[in-house]
Amino acid sequence: MTSDNSLSSTPSSSLKGTVKVPGDKSISHRSLMFGALAIGKTNVFGMLEGEDVLATAKAMRALGAHVERDDQGVWHIEGRGIGGLCEPEDVLDMGNSGTSARLLMGILGSHPITTFMTGDASLRKRPMGRVANPLAEMGTQVHCRSGQRLPLMVQGAETPMPIRYKLPMASAQVKSCILLAGLNTPGETTVIETEHTRDHTELMLRHFGAEVRVTQTEEGRETTIVGQPELKAADVHVPSDPSSAAFPTVAALINEGSELRLPGIGMNPHRNGIYITLKEMGADITLENERTEAGEPVADLVVRASKLKGITVPAERAPSMIDEYPILAIAASFAEGKTIMEGLGELRVKESDRLSAVANGLKACGVTCEEGDDYLIVEGSPTDVKGGGTITTHFDHRIAMSFLVMGMAAKEPVKVLDADAIDTSFPDFAKLMNGLGAQIG
Ligand code: S3P
């Protein structure tokens, strides 16, 4: 990393080897939160130790849970039981992590304590009304800065009320926030979604002993949590993150002669849209040793360099690959023909406005693209991606990694500003990619 926190990626030869991708971010956050609400000691194996997850760990300690990491890298959490968290003495700083902020707001919403919460410049711009509004219906008082942004104060309800809530947008964070508020609420709390988002909350709550029912009705997919269960500590084996694995996967696909093996990647069907899409584009990706670990489907991936072709990615696939559009746009740049990506409205409220960050980055690297309100069209060219751009990441880890992958196969190096943002989800990204044959520095 240079003194200005930039990284550059220069054209590399083929990538070869085995990559151990770090643990799944979504599952790591939840293991800390649910462990803190359970009775007994939860052991977590393969925890992602990125900045986002460390922010959650710090917050759970501030709320009274005992959280420690041993020398073997196993995390141990001694919980306080549902309703047992105590008021933190200071403001909780959630850093860059929307998942930490929104899920924790749900947990705090049904604890009769007052908490102040903030985050970094990117998180302070992100909308919190989407969780503050349903929490208000449950009796929680959330006072936000203007525009329903952080910093904010959560005053948990003394006597929370269960709700039935239809999600206005496809968001696992909002769904999880409400279900977690429902944990310390008498009765049954139900969330209805018309688009199926990731279900790590539901799977892990069951793993800890909660009753979670899922039914399909005319209104959509209804998920109901039965309030005030006793959560019992349970060990969690965190699979490798399919979102992080998408970066070495695309790097291998677009660098001639590459072959990578990625063991133990989470293949939850509500997270694997990128792999389905890449295969439709002609990618040579094989799944080996498909298995289930702690309720989550897992497989070893074998990826070989491939000739990709442009396709139309349907809008309904967006929830299962919402974090992967930046790296898909890079794959699309190296594909023959047009790739059309639809249903991308939610990309505008991620760690950055990812739709415009991607479009601007592509243009800076000589790739023709069209940015619509909620779509992106990329004109690919397998042998003619110029590169050479300097990318403004807006402190977004996925924008940074995506364009470093582009620099590996473009004609000219790509420079990425604020590359330290990568530490939020994939701390050793550059080292690991360089070990496979990349040139990032
Ligand atoms: C996440 C849900 C998604 C995703 C985020 C992690 C989660 O956000 O973008 O990186 O762990 O629940 P939304 O729920 O806002 O789509």
From TrEMBL:
NCBIfam families reported in the protein's UniProt record: aroA
Gene Ontology biological-process annotations: amino acid biosynthetic process; aromatic amino acid family biosynthetic process; chorismate biosynthetic process
Location(s) in or outside the cell: Cytoplasm
EC nos: 2.5.1.19
Reactions the enzyme catalyzes: 3-phosphoshikimate + phosphoenolpyruvate = 5-O-(1-carboxyvinyl)-3-phosphoshikimate + phosphate
Subunit and interaction comment: Monomer.
Predominant location category: cytoplasm
Protein's name according to its UniProt entry: 3-phosphoshikimate 1-carboxyvinyltransferase
Binding site for 3-phosphoshikimate: K25, S26, R30, S171, Q173, D323, K350
Keywords on record: Amino-acid biosynthesis, Aromatic amino acid biosynthesis, Cytoplasm, Transferase
Record keyword Electron transport present: no
Role summary: Catalyzes the transfer of the enolpyruvyl moiety of phosphoenolpyruvate (PEP) to the 5-hydroxyl of shikimate-3-phosphate (S3P) to produce enolpyruvyl shikimate-3-phosphate and inorganic phosphate.
Recorded name of the encoding gene: aroA
UniProt GO MF annotations: 3-phosphoshikimate 1-carboxyvinyltransferase activity
Catalytic-site annotation from UniProt: D323 (proton acceptor)
Binding residue positions for phosphoenolpyruvate: K25, G98, R126, Q173, R354, R398
PROSITE patterns: EPSP_SYNTHASE_1, EPSP_SYNTHASE_2
Listed GO CC annotations: cytoplasm
SUPFAM superfamilies given in the database record: EPT/RTPC-like (SSF55205)
Disordered, as annotated region: 1-23
